[in-house]
Amino acid sequence: MSDSRAHIVTGLLRDGDRLLLVHRSPNRLRYPNVWDLPGGHVEPGEPPAAALVRELREELGIEVPQPADPPLDELRSDTFFMQIWLIEAWTGTPVNTAPEEHDAIGWFTGDEIRRLRLALDDSLALFTKALGTPPTGGAHIG
């Protein structure tokens, strides 16, 4: 990416009719005390799909296959460019392995998500889209 916006990759982990969200710690500089997707910044020279694999390992302690498909969605603002992949297959059980960034993680249905304070206004439409997308046949492993 050639501009100065932060390049962010996130994973939308879906298990049936539930999505995994992380709660950003209240002491975070940007978007504190809200529910968001796990993920993070792409390092210089790092392919976005590889950054997603690394970030989900660092934040949730899971292994995901590097996505071959394009992202489910992309969000742009004045300060960031975010790519969001739908993840339906992983190895391991997601746990909060980044307590300095998140103070909780949780699985939520669409109705439950509607009652949460979300990081981005566009998130609810994206989450509804992801829950309405037919499963690809993948499932988490172990």
How would you portray this structure in words?
The protein has 142 residues and is α+β, with helices and mostly antiparallel strands. Helix content is 19%, strand content 29%. Strands 1, 2, 3, 4, 5, 6 and 7 form a seven-stranded mixed sheet that branches. A hairpin with a 3-residue loop joins strand 5 and strand 6.
Describe the SSE topology.
Layout: E1 6-15, E2 18-24, E3 35-36, E4 39-41, H1 48-60, E5 73-76, E6 80-87, E7 102-108, H2 110-113, H3 123-132
Parallel strand pairs: 1-6
Antiparallel strand pairs: 1-2, 1-4, 2-3, 2-7, 5-6
Into which percentage range does the β-strand content fall? 25-35%
CATH C-level class: Alpha Beta
Find the count of extended strands (DSSP E, 2+ residues).
Answer: 7
Which regions have little confidence, pLDDT < 50, spanning 5+ residues?
Answer: none
> What's the story with the biggest beta sheet?
7 strands, mixed
